[in-house]
Each structure stands twice: as C-alpha cells, then as structure tokens.
Amino acid sequence: xxxxxxxxxxxxxxxxxxxxxxxxxxxxxxxxxxxxxxxxxxxxxxxxxxxxxxxxxxxxxxxxxxxxxxxxxxxxxxxxxxxxxxxxxxxxxxxxxxxxxxxxxxxxxxxxxxxxxxxxxxxxxxxxxxxxxxxxxxxxxxxxxxxxxxxxxxxxxxxxxxxxxxxxxxxxxxxxxxxxxxxxxxxxxxxxxxxxxxxxxxxxxxxxxxxxxxxxxxxxxxxxxxxxxxxxxxxxxxxxxxxxxxxxxxxxxxxxxxxxxxxxxxxxxxxxxxxxxxxxxxxxxxxxxxxxxxxxxxxxxx
Length: 302
What we know:
By secondary structure, this protein is an all-alpha fold. Helices cover 68% and strands 0% of the residues.
C-alpha cells in the first residue's frame, strides 16, 4: 500500500524533531531555541519538505523517503559545520543553529576585520553534495548562493585589507592596497643604494688606485638611472593593480547586494551581475555557477 501525504508528513516531522535534538532534559531557554525559527530549523523544514514532494511525485516508499530526507539533512549539517567556529570552544546553541545571515553592510565587517568564520573547502563540498540530491530545496539553495558569494567576498577582503603586525610589515604582501606607494619604494631604494654603494666606495678609499670605489660609484649611478627609467612603468602597474582590487570588490558587493531582498530574486539577473564581476577578475567558487545554472534550467528564481 502506497503511503499517503499524511504519513509522509508525519515521518518528515519526526526526522526534523530528531535532528533538532538538544539533550534529554533541555532547560526553558534551550526549548525556546529548539522551537524557534532558527536557521537550522528553517533549513531542515525546507529540505525535508522538498524530499517529501519528490517522494510523492516519484512513488517512493517511506523508508526510501527517510533516506532521501536525511541526505538533505546531512547537507545542512555540513553547511552548519563549515560556518561554525569551534576554535575558542563550543559556541552557544543559539549561535550554532543561527549559523548564517545575510549582512547588510559587509564592508563594515571587512574594514574592521570581523568577517564571519567560513571553511572554504567544506562549504564547497556541501554545495557539491547538495547538487547531487535528486531534489531541490528553495531556502537551502538561496542560502548556498548567499554563502558562496560571501565566501569569496570576505576571503578577498581579508587578503587585501588585513595588515601584518607592525614588526612584520617588511614581508612581501599579495595585496596591492597594502604595498608601499611605488614612489616611497623608489626613494627608499635610492637611500639604501647610496648607503651600500657610496658608503662602500668611501670605505674602499684608495684601494687599487680607486678602482673599487669607481666601480661602486658606477654601479650606484647605473641603478639610479635604471630605477628612474622604470619608475613610471612600475607606478602605472601599481595604480592598475589597485584599481583592479577596487573593481573586484565593487563587483562582489554588487553581486552580494542582489541577494539582499527578502523576496524572490531573478537567477538570470544575479548570474549576469556575477559574470560582470568575474570579467574584472573575481574568482567565484566553482559551485556558485553550477547552482545558478541548475536553477536557471528549472525555475530561474531564488
């Protein structure tokens, strides 16, 4: 006998309840969290409902439905784990279950170095696992897109704007924003060259009738001429690199802001903005376009 929707729904609720377990005797505060609209609760409701609709459409039995639903639950678990920071001990339950939100002002977090914890490889693995499910869950899909866009935005912002401690700022940096201005580097280089080569020439004195001193002076002058000739090119290169950083950041903010609406958004529009950002140099996580393209082939809405 084929189970009806009531049986499926009862099984679905049981699965959600099991995976919202918070101990045998939770206190009043924990029960409120357990019964509240946490991110975890909403995503579990979403993914198990999607699995139920798939099971009803395909004539799946209750046992197979349970396997399908729990596959989606484990995707939610993996996403939660990838966004929960355990480095300073066990987070509060409310923080664990409200593991993600769309930020209204991400630049404020980047500027103040308060980006949320995000495990890149685990997030991408969870997104890939979602795409392997035989059904799609709207809220979870929207969350994945939001997380994947934010993942690159925050990682790029951290790399570009996080400064080394004062004693380590002589180390090379991948950030054109953190580099010394090319003119400062040029002037500093001349000072060091003068100290090394002209100082060496003075110390050499009359050695070999001044030959060593003359060679050192010649090398110093040659380096001055060479660095001066190259200065405009290096200046232009640095200016272009810094401009690219700001263009990439603007493209990421623009893409992220497309997800700010509480209502339905156009996947096509979002993809166009993401592609525009990629054209100026943004390297989006691979699963982002895979999810967007998969969505476009179905509803075109997030």
